[in-house]
Amino acid sequence: MIRILVVDDHAVVREGVKQILADVSDMVVKDEAGNGPTTLEKIAQNDYDVVLLDISMPGRSGLEILEDIKSRHPKLPVLILSMHPEEQYAVRALRAGASGYLTKASAPQELIGAIRKASSGGKYVTTSLAEKLALELGTDTEKLPHERLSNREHQVMLMLAGGKSVSEIAENIFLSSKTVSTYRTRIMDKMGMKKNAELTLYAVHNNLIN
């Protein structure tokens, strides 16, 4: 039996996953969590075979939680299940140790197959993502500006590009406005930009936002 921890800050998403897996004979949703601290606490206290982890959560992002999980429990498979398209986070997630990346628009059978693959020690990668990874590994091309950002900077950059203000971002990820402003300054320096509008145009051009 594959024991699963479902991590998402939306109860409706957790319920949806439980419904999808309810009739799967070799899987059971053993537990659920809605934030990073609870996730790490449950993993420390219980045994799971796979963690299903969202990226967009209040406070620390899913990528930061993923890094914590892998540093403390390197052999525990973590599948990212996110509303964000692959272009935004998939490569970062796999680099951080994820066993796969699925969007919430994925078919139920795809999710079930990915969980089975991850629990057996494999990696679940879509064809499009495999091509992107192969391209990155096979060339020595210089990284794009957004690929030089840290995971937290990348998260803030996408929010700025999406039109959120510094104060809105601060409230969303539980940081002070001053800290978010510092991240914004770093982002602008690393990407060679001065205005949020430039970030938005760049993000749209690179399919990072719709």
Can you tell me about this structure?
Helix 2 (36-45) runs parallel beside helix 3 (62-72), helix 7 crosses helix 9 (177-191) and helix 8 crosses helix 9. Strand 1, helix 1 and strand 2 (27-33) form a beta-alpha-beta unit. The model has no long low-confidence stretch (mean pLDDT 90). The protein has helices at residues 11-21, 36-45, 62-72, 86-95, 108-119, 127-138, 151-161, 166-173, 177-191, 196-205, and strands at residues 2-7, 27-33, 50-53, 78-82, 100-103. The protein is of the alpha/beta class and 210 residues long. It has two domains: 2-137, 3-Layer(aba) Sandwich (Rossmann fold), CATH 3.40.50.2300; 145-205, Arc Repressor Mutant, subunit A, CATH 1.10.10. It has a five-stranded parallel sheet, sandwiched between helices. The chain contains ten helices and five strands; from the N terminus they run E-H-E-H-E-H-E-H-E-H-H-H-H-H-H.
Layout of secondary structure:
Elements: E1 2-7, H1 11-21, E2 27-33, H2 36-45, E3 50-53, H3 62-72, E4 78-82, H4 86-95, E5 100-103, H5 108-119, H6 127-138, H7 151-161, H8 166-173, H9 177-191, H10 196-205
Parallel strand pairs: 1-2, 1-3, 3-4, 4-5
Helix pairs in contact: 2-3, 7-9, 7-10, 8-9
Kindly state the number of beta strands. 5
Number of domains: 2
Instruction: List the total number of helices.
Output: 10
Looking at CATH, the homologous superfamily of the largest domain is Response regulator
Which oligomeric state applies? single chain
Main sheet characteristics: 5 strands, parallel
What is Rg?
Answer: 17 Å
SSE topology string = EHEHEHEHEHHHHHH
Gross morphology is globular
Structural class: alpha/beta
